[in-house]
Amino acid sequence: MRTNRWLFSLACMLSVFVCGNAQKTPSPFQRGDRVVFLGNSITEGGHYHSYIWLYYITHFPDMRMRMYSAGTGGDSSWDMLERIEEDVYGKNPTVVTATFGMNDSGYFEYNGDNPTAFVERQMYRVDTTFQAMQKIMKSHKDTRVIMIGGTPYDETWQNEKNKPFLGKNATIQKIIRLQREAAVKNDWAFVDFHNPVLEVNRVQQAKDPRFTLMQGDRIHPDNHGNMLMAYFFLKSQGLAGKPVAKVDIDASRRVVLANENCFVNELKVSDKGTVSFTYLAKSLPYPMDTISRGWEKKHTQYEATLYAPIMEDLNQEVLRVDGLKGAYRLEIDGDSISTFSAEDLAKGINLAALTNTPQYQQAVRVMHLNEERWNIEKRFREYAWTEFYILKRKGMLFQDNIAAMDTLRANLHTNIFLAGHLDNYSKMMYPEIREAWNQQIDMLVDRMYQIAQPKVRRIELIKKLIRLVRSLRWITTTALSLALVGTACSGPTRTIEEVHFSDYVNPFIGASTNTEAAGAYHGLGKTFPGATTPFGMVQVSPNTITGGDNGSGYSYEHETIEGFAFTQMSGIGWYGDLGNLLVMPTVGDLRTNSGKEGGVAGYRSRYDKSSEEAKAGYYKVLLSDYQIQAEATAAPHSGMLRFVFPENKQSRIQLDLARRVGGTSTYQAVQVIDDHTIAGRMECTPEGGGWGNGEGSSRYTVYFYAQFSKPLKDYGVWSVDIPAGQDRHREFVESPAFQILTANAKISERPKAYEGEHLGFFTEFETEANEEVLFKAGISFVSLEGAEKNLKAEIKDWDFDAVRSRARSLWDTALAKMDVSGGTDEQKVIFYTSLYHTMIDPRIYTDVDGQYMGADGKAHKSDTFTKRTIFSGWDVFRSQMPLQTIINPVLVNDLLKSLTTMAEESGREYYERWELLNAYSGCMLGNPAISVLADAYAKGICSLDMEKAYRYADKTSRMFGNAELGYTPNPQSISKTLEYAYTEWCMSQLAKSLGKQEDAVYYAKLAQSYRNLYDAEKHSFRPREANGRFEAWPEEGKLKEWYGCMECNELQQGWFVPHDIPGMVELMGGTERVIADLDTMFDKTPTDFLWNAYYNHANEPVHHVPFLYNHLGQPWKTQKWSRFICDKAYKNKVEGLVGNEDVGQMSAWYVLAACGLYPVCPGDTRYEISSPVFEKTEIQVGEGNTFIIRANRNTPENTYIQSAKLNGTDYTRCYLDYRDIMKGGVLELEMGPEPNTNWGVNN
């Protein structure tokens, strides 16, 4: 828990303050209390009273009470005086809390000529009004009163868009002194919200002046502010330190040393070390909402724990067990919760901090019901505002008739808030509506108290050994729809049955890691040929090798298959990851090692290459050694395999649960649920290799819920004893020792459950000739329950062909975003396969119920976006993301929200450049997330909390940038300086758009940092060391790979100044010299475009270079070279990608260029016009709009644009604006065989 130490002193500060003023603190509420919270909009729209009641319900579930909001927006004390009898005491309260001051203290008057006189008048009015209020409150002698010193107006928050009313807070403090004095005089209790909130803001703003607990108006506390208010209130009632429960056990003596607020019985400690007991807590843990709820709320209840010791004071469910050794898995009611060391257990663990316990989930149900109650109650508060603020003053209080409605309509122009309340009043004026909603509230309250009742739990601490364990209890849930994918891929208006776009997809394009064919260590496309759905979580694909730089797990030239995994990465290097849940059908004797191609026997099999077939959402192959035909298909969160077996008495399906591309999972669990079902998990950590062989900090757990069409009769688990201290990285997995070790696994027959460090599961059965046996599984990165839900929502039966058909339909819908005509069938295959490859990532990371695993290792739920993962930032910011802003803007927004929540949940508060399953891998360089953010914001498709996003982007840029020296020193000085200068330009654009002028100037200056590496004598950028010296000039000059560059040379990286092309041209000697240098570069480029020292299309830094001619007055050369690259660098064959696919970037380049568009500088909304491959391209751009690019007389010879029209009007520019595309229309190009050197030259 990241709390600030100074906040632990808040209790002391408050107690001193209390004692010094002889004021009374409130006692805890009692059974049967009816508590009414009187206030203004901070009470009406705030959650603090709801959070207080939630604490009482969960902590004292047998002590029933009611709490009511009597907050009304805009109220001052004199408004409250008018309604206090009917609206407050009409609820028959036993306790009334009262707070006012925010509206009483005024607003714009502090900017007037005489604010001092205004304050004096206001204070007189407040004092007079409050005296009258006190008389009424004292007349209700049986009602206890708690005065609350309200929250401050945040004058110190740094926000240029909202200038503060300086001096307002001093007036609020004067009002609070009146309240405190009245409390002392009347023997009322007093609670101070004001000073503690001020203190939190003061300390946090010293670190970050943009921090505030308020919303953007400086007035209303956000959710984290409301939680702090609830904390201060509960603490003042003396409830801090009262635990949910505490259990202290000495396992060595088998005794319960202490149990507070709970009952512990049936304590047992087995010979194998399992500690078990029954546990009945009198309270539930206090649930913390991780979703920002309420109008204009941007923060969550949970965030309050960062600024106060809420968990320590109010939410301690402590389990302490001494006398143990080793590591133990905690299970509650059969559900696996987490693993703890004996040392952790001896210190004590706080179960209330574990959100996956049954008791916490029990409390979460109460929390959501309470939120629903709050929403309904807020309608009553809006009704009360209308009655007391408008109708009472018209003499029409509670008339609730047509005349009242007419009066309200007549006053709409006099009050801006009335328009927002009128619809609510039009319903609530009817008593039947009010009665129905009151009944709903009563029902919700009853249900909350029912759910909150204590339950006996069974707790077990199971020592982590490779041994049999008891099976878990599984929760079945109602299946949900597949709508998650639909948000990213809505189709065109015409019906999909007219054409199957997916028929043009060839998943074998790029499916090779062959370094020899690539002519470079990077290999070729590294795509996978297996079945997936658009941006799906699951990819069911054959795996041919474990180890090597083989990111997709498959390479076409390999001759054996070791199984079909349910997760894959697309087109990446750095040794890869995923490849989890490897399923293999076999016959004959059981083998537990994979074997190695070319000599080591294992469960792998040779396959008939001629039988291999791949389509969008489908894969098929014949495994020659076993004579088993295997077919694969997929749904978004699940997959299915159909095996056709030969006649054999020893047929089998086996699962290697330890298998992982680039390494191994380090811990697995599996259990048998019923005669057809197993479930389990695979824990993957950096210690087991994976992404960058462990250097990329990849850490995740894959949960699975799997079913077999044949019943489980003869089944078992194989377990490998991993030697103590054995390194488990890629090198070990590739070694002969690994094959020997895994070949000698221990077999356990028919266990109900098993856990260990290297496991596999198998089920054996007899088959007739050509007998079909099917396997299906859902996966989740959140929980076992999530995996089960995912499977049951998507694949309810055993109809393989129906699942395949749905997958094909999903692809048809997604690919129909772009409809091309003309060109050859080969070109259409290349185009639609490229489009297909751009729709694999960033993939869904959210289960069907909306839950995802956060970067804090906790489950989160979002109803506002789909959490996504795999952001190969250094690659995809160039083409892939700008493409998606056109065809899938919602997806780009999802990605940005995903990266933002990752920054927030991790506590790092900066953007990662290469994200995989929440890992801050640090792969490559630059700040590409800032590019995507700036581009989306410039295009108007960004629905983020921009203040938060900017704050994270600002921190990112200051952590990784050119600020310290005016350049970034070696290593990779050129690449880093130029890439950072570009995103510093992006930051300047963002800052300017957000009104942050000082930042805009600061970053605009840094965006010129590229100049500080240019050596005019060498006509080249040169890397500098930290001392300012240039690195020695190499013999190869500009062509020296890695000379200050990342995976390239200066000739390639040196063109990357997209944000200041005129400045770059001037630096390099002027337009003529730059054009000559570009011409030379392209002339020397090999026509196969494989890895080379010139225009190296196999690597990303040069991808914008062909389009620079548009900026240099020679757009016909952009047309020439973009068309030439499309024709030569992309083919309909396995070697059809000249370099790594890089998570959609290589293919996105083709899709854009083939359409005749390209973005040189994301963050600017300009798209270059080039030579389209097709005669006609129709792009579905959303909201029913279609943008058409028509290239008349387009042939392989007619590659040059002669003239253009946009929506029927002559068009002479060589670029379009994003907005021109998105509003729909027609760009019509006349093509010819010779350049028109007059068109498009005025760039």
DSSP E strands, number: 53
Main-sheet strand order equals 15-33-28-29-30-35-24-23-22-21-18
Structural class, from secondary structure content? alpha+beta
Work out the strand percent: 15-25%
The rounded Rg comes to: 33 Å
Quickly count the helices.
34
Runs in which pLDDT lies below 50 for 5 or more consecutive residues are: 1-21, 465-498
Q: Indicate the overall shape.
A: globular
State mean pLDDT (0 to 100 scale).
91
Please report the distance between the alpha carbons of the first and last residues.
55 Å
Largest sheet: 11 strands, antiparallel
Helix content: 25-40%
Overview of the structural elements:
This protein is an alpha+beta fold. It contains 34 helices and 53 strands. The strands form 13 sheets. It has an 11-stranded antiparallel β-sheet with strand order 15-33-28-29-30-35-24-23-22-21-18. Strand 48 and strand 49 form a beta hairpin. Helix 3 packs across helix 8, helix 23 packs across helix 24 and helix 25 runs parallel beside helix 27. The two termini are 55 Å apart.
